[in-house]
User: What shape does this take?
Amino acid sequence: MAEEVLYEAMAVGADRGLLLTDPAFAAADTFATSYTLARTIERECSEFDLVLCGCYTSDSETAQVGPQLAEELDIPAAAYVEDFAIEGRKVRMQRVSDNFLEIMEMELPGLVTIMTRSYAPRYPSLEGLADAFDRPEVKTLNADAIGVDLNRIGRNGSPTRIINVYSPTAEKKNVVLKGTAKKVVSAIFDNYGDKISGAMGKDLKRL
Assistant: This one.
């Protein structure tokens, strides 16, 4: 599956594909994953200018790998970017944070995590797929190939421990109030006035 995704990436413009696979990488959290990716980039793409990442992982959506990868590479980073343009040795970016539009500039090399709102992945063409599969196969790398510290990858390098995974259950209690409008409103104020006041940040008794 992962190899197919890399071929699709080459079909839409990527020059080559690198597949990291090794049992030693198993059970890695975001900390160990970012370390592994950083060592791979330094070994295989040492002259990089810009690292592009998605904002979230597909499993737990922590949004941590991109920023942690930037820390490992010791480069500046910007997250949740919705639009950007490269101008010389700078990248100019836009994002919305706390309902405010932010416009930022960053010196390269750097890392950006991208929102898919403006940059939705496009479908590869048949011609692109044919060209991708005509190239040399995807390069596969294991832990030895990228020269990582085995104590910093996989489960050994992951400080995070998952105790349990479960779906939250919502327990709701419905209450039906009957009677005239005045009676219902009085019952709401009597029974739930404090909760409503807390949610609104106002004392309903003074309104």
